[in-house]
């Protein structure tokens, strides 16, 4: 058992509190990781707000990097001292989805009651999203970590665990963008910028960013967008037709905003696909006219974690970073201590940040 400090959510919509918790030692197929950096993702904020329900008390955070301090006997290929990314993608390797190359949709659900965290009274604290990485250390399933070398700064590397793979993967793995296509990315925040990078890497001819903020549209161009459209225009999809008369081959919705979901199909051309990446709160609804999808051969598909396979996708993304073809350092907006996490969340909530990171004073 290890004593750690962690940011605990005890009531939805309230500030997180820094508490001293007990972290269990790793089981046979688990590893313990001393965290160096963890990013603040909008999914963490949605959970802490109660937007998706869930068990309390809980420790959120799922986008991290650190060093392995202990490893179970069945954690093959991982040893103490290894620098690793920590992701929420937990794979059993034997269900249908894992076996068919979709571990982000693993059907084997972990027992939340048997998690690694306990508070001072011995009561369980949920390690949310199978991670609980707003903490000095985590104990996670070995499938959730992937080795990474020391060439990438921790606050940049941790973004590969979620924001980067979600955006880039949505473009390449889910949308399967082809050279010459027209792509619309709605929402130019942290995930949207990575979807834009993914579309650029895939060879899209036109990459059109749509956002409410002119500053974010400028950001989008720096990451590879060829055009920008203000979502506040009365009919922004008509502006797309001036850029690409046939409409978009793919629309990637990288925000949880309901208007974005409501209007996404208006950008699509014939046989185009809308990819749902951002996640509205549970219970929120939008309406579509199904006859138009059928008549135009259009489709709607969800993308969870960019349909990423960690062992396959992380190494080539790291190589693209080394070659200067994938921006990571430029995604980092701020660096905060664990005791500043509520300030980091507030800054993220304000909307200007690309990605804020919590950095721990440990080697790594």
Individual helix count? 11
CATH C-level class of the largest domain: Alpha Beta
Query: Strand-residue fraction?
Result: 25-35%
Average pLDDT metric? 94
Can you describe what's shown?
This protein is an alpha/beta fold and 364 residues long. It has 2 domains: 2-161 and 327-359, Medium-chain alcohol dehydrogenases, catalytic domain (Quinone Oxidoreductase, Chain A, domain 1, Alpha-Beta Complex), CATH 3.90.180.10; 167-304, Rossmann fold (3-Layer(aba) Sandwich). The chain contains 11 helices and 18 strands. Strands 3, 5, 6, 9, 10, 17 and 18 form a 7-stranded mixed β-sheet that branches. Helix 4 (163-174) runs parallel beside helix 5 (190-202). The longest helix has 13 residues, at 190-202. The two termini are 22 Å apart.
């Amino acid at each position: 058992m290890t004593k750690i400090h962690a940011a605990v959510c005890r009531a939805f919509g309230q500030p997180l509190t820094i508490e001293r918790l007990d972290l269990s030692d790793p089981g046979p197929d688990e590893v313990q990781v001393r965290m160096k950096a963890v990013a603040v993702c909008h999914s963490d904020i949605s959970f802490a707000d109660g937007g998706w329900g869930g068990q309390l008390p809980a420790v959120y955070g799922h986008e991290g990097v650190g060093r392995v301090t202990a490893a179970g006997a069945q954690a093959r290929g991982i040893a103490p001292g290894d620098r690793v990314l920590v992701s929420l993608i937990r794979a059993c390797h034997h269900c249908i989805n894992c076996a068919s190359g979709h571990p982000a949709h693993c059907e084997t659900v972990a027992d939340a009651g048997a998690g690694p965290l306990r508070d001072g009274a011995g009561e369980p604290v949920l390690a949310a999203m199978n991670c609980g990485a707003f903490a000095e250390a985590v104990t996670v399933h070995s499938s959730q970590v992937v080795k990474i070398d020391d060439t990438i700064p921790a606050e940049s590397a941790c973004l590969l665990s979620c924001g980067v793979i979600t955006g880039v993967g949505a473009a390449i793995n889910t949308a399967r963008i082809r050279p010459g296509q027209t792509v619309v990315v709605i929402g130019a925040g942290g995930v949207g910028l990575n979807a834009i990078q993914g579309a650029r890497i895939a060879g899209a001819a036109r990459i059109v960013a749509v956002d409410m903020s002119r500053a974010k549209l400028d950001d989008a161009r720096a990451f590879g967008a060829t055009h920008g459209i203000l979502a506040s225009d009365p009919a922004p999809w008509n502006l797309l037709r001036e850029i690409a008369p046939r409409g978009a081959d793919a629309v990637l919705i990288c925000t949880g905003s309901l208007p974005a979901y409501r209007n996404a199909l208006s950008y699509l051309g014939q046989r185009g696909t809308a990819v749902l990446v951002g996640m509205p709160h549970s219970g929120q609804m939008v309406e579509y006219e199904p006859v138009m999808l059928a008549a135009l051969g259009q489709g709607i598909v969800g993308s969870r974690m960019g349909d990423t396979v960690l062992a396959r996708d992380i190494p080539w993304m790291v190589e693209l970073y080394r070659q200067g073809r994938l921006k990571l350092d430029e995604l980092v907006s701020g660096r905060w201590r664990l005791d500043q996490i509520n300030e980091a969340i507030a800054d993220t909530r304000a909307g200007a940040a690309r990605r804020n990171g919590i950095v721990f004073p440990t080697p790594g």
